[in-house]
Amino acid sequence: MKVTELIDEAMSQRKEHLNLSNSNLMEFPNMLFQLDNLTTLDLSNNHISNIPDAISRLINLTQLDLSNNQISTLPPTLSNLVHLERLYLNNNSISELPISLTNLYNLTSLNLSNNQICALPKDIKNLENLAALFLKNNPIQQLSKIVSSFKKLIHLDLRGTKITQIPMAIAEHFSYDFSLAEHVLGNGLFVSDVPLKLPPIEIINNGIVALKDYYFSIKKEKKVLNEVKILIVGEGAAGKTSLLNLFQGKPFDRAEKQTQGINIAHNDIETDDGIVKTHYWDFGGQEIMHATHQFFLSKRSLYILVIDKRREEKSEYWLKLIESFGGDSPIIVVLNKMDENPSFNVNKTQLSEKYKNIKGFFHVSCKTQSGIEDLKIKVAELLGQTPLFGTVWATKWFKIKALLEAEIKPFIPYEEYKNICKNLELNDDSTQQTLIRFLNDLGSIIHFNDPMLEHTHVLKPRWITEAVYRIINSDILAINKGLLHREDLKEILKKKYIDDFDYPLDKHDYIINLMKKFEICYPCGSNDVLLPSLLDVETPKFEFNKRDSINFIVEYDFLPKSTFLRFMVQMNNNIETQWRTGFILNDKRSGSKALITVDSEQKKIYFTVNGKNRKDYFAFLLFTLRQINKSFEKLKSYELIPMPDNPLITIGYEDLLFQLEEGQNFCFPPNARKKYPIKELLGIVTYVDEPLETIINLLNEIDDNIVRDDPDSLYEGIDRTIMLKPNICGIGIDFNAVLKIIGKKDFKKKLQAIAKTFATKK
Ligand code: GDP
Ligand code: MG
Q1: 214: exposed, middle or buried (C-beta count within 10 Å: 0-12, 13-18, 19+)?
Q2: Residue 245 CB less than 6 A away from ligand 1
Q3: Which residue among 256, 262, 305, 339 is best mutated to probe the pocket of ligand 1, counting the most ligand atoms within 8 A of its Cβ?
Q4: What is this structure's pTM?
Q5: 10 Å Cβ neighbour count for 32?
Q6: Which tens digit of pLDDT belongs to each residue from 94-132?
Q7: For residue 636, which of 148, 397, 557, 608 is within the disulfide window of CB 3.0 to 4.6 Å?
Q8: Phi then psi for 733, rounded to 5 degrees?
Q9: Residues 6+ apart with CB under 8 A from 749
Q10: For ligand 1, is residue 236 a contact (CB within 6 Å)?
């Protein structure tokens, strides 16, 4: 029906409800004003930009939906609609609300989301029946105190606003736990993506107890946090320390010595927001120690990336690192040594698009000091924008921070931290956790939110860098080519000089777990770890029979270094020879050998497998790599088969399967001048179905030592293990994994179960 017809009908039948949504209306239909009977009117999803004064005639309206239009102002006469209970104005272009809104004292729900509202009218306190107020995605900065007089408010949506403070009186309306989750139906206080300083967003996330505790504690005494951690990162000799010196008012030193470990400096900077205490972290050390920088890259800080022409290609490595660890911290990119290379530049547009947190690029010379003043101004400006700055803390939080900073021990156990908190009457667990995260991001302590690491709070960063340094540089590891036996740590971490740190035995695990977390080492067997950075770079001389071998390539769009390394350590038991970019496996049981190499430039991993049972062994290897690939989110890989007579020409494995299923017998790989028989190509790598007896026989050879009694995990394992495809192209069964899962107990039964599952899968 047309709009006019709908209105006519409503008029003649004296209807109370009228829905004109999605009617392509460009204007508010004047005919509507005669419908003074209406109680609900839906005009949503139209193109209305103007609401006439005469709207006041629709005096009986209880619900008015004007959402998704182009309204920019509202008429003052809106105030006559005193029966309105629900008013939807979301998704318009409203920047100011009429004061008359105040008269709508029957309103229970007011939706103003997605507009340009900067402030609520001062006098809206009459809206005392308001239960739900939606302000999502408005540039509003302050909640007027009046909102707290809405005694019935149970739903306050502030997502995406610029609000920094939620007064206690407002928060008190919400007597249940809050959640950042965007549940549509539930009521609550919604604050994701809000630059809250009071209360800090974490406190709201911690729930009502933490919130009450927080308000209670700041009631007594509070202080605004005026500190920021600034991390100066970049390649060695880019000029990080020189820049820090200038920030501190020290002169440029032509012979600046290489920074050892981490240099932490403090400075007060005057900004528009007052004096800010800055804590600079200047990272030094050899390249091999770069990995340890990651331990200290915190969220809610300010990053300065210093680059120079010499190693400009490394810029993205650092930006990626900051992105992974720095959260939403702002980043400034400094192009240094302009005196030497005045034309040095980077693709700013591209980098800014890729790394959204970059707030500016500065061309400077630490030597001539050109550009340094502008950089300082930008730094001062950004300090106020770091999320931690300006948060309101209870005074006791500051006391805890001071106690920890004054501690001379290099680390304390979690319990000790709790005791410090308890002594100052900070008892709530979640608030203690929140404070730890704040302290970590400020650099006062180093704490990792990881079950393997959270029991220790490190107070001196050097305590961990020193340990990693000693491990990496130890003779024992050099001899063992990067393989570290746990017992060797006793010797490596032994105190040799009076000034050396202590590494008690029970902290060895902490050090190893930390190195594992940041992939400086990888578990290898049950008790050892491998530090791949200590493997030989050079490919050793070896012999490998490539005749009649299976050849296969896995190509990636982006290949994280750890993919290949994890693959290498997982295969550790069978490794005969290894170097940084390759390894040779010798699986005595199947009589197969495999040569696996990586080309990081080409982003490819190459397989060559030979021997009697090469198909089984290859299936197992590919399965293992696929599992590793799966553990990386977003990682895309393509499986390719090289042509037997020309390995440079490849064709997609999945493509081949598809072509075969479509009935093709031959394929023309791209760039090939001849056709290849598909089955033959696939036969090279596919696992031809074994008769059931073969599988049962194989299972019968199960090692008696492997005992697992959990039938659930057995089934789950079988499910995971048997990856059959409906034709000959299936990849087969990963026997090794099956063998691991099966226990001794009820062996026969389990076998039958496997046989059954196997048969149904087929
Ligand atoms: P860091 O390893 O990143 O801390 O780099 P440094 O601050 O130690 O600087 C490395 C070397 O580069 C030192 O010899 C500095 O004197 C020199 N250097 C730093 N900034 C500049 C600059 O702007 N111009 C020139 N010509 N040399 C610089
Ligand atoms: Mg330095």
Answers
A1: buried
A2: no
A3: 256
A4: 0.73
A5: 22
A6: 999 888 888 898 999 999 999 999 988 877 777 889 889
A7: 557
A8: -120, 140
A9: none
A10: yes
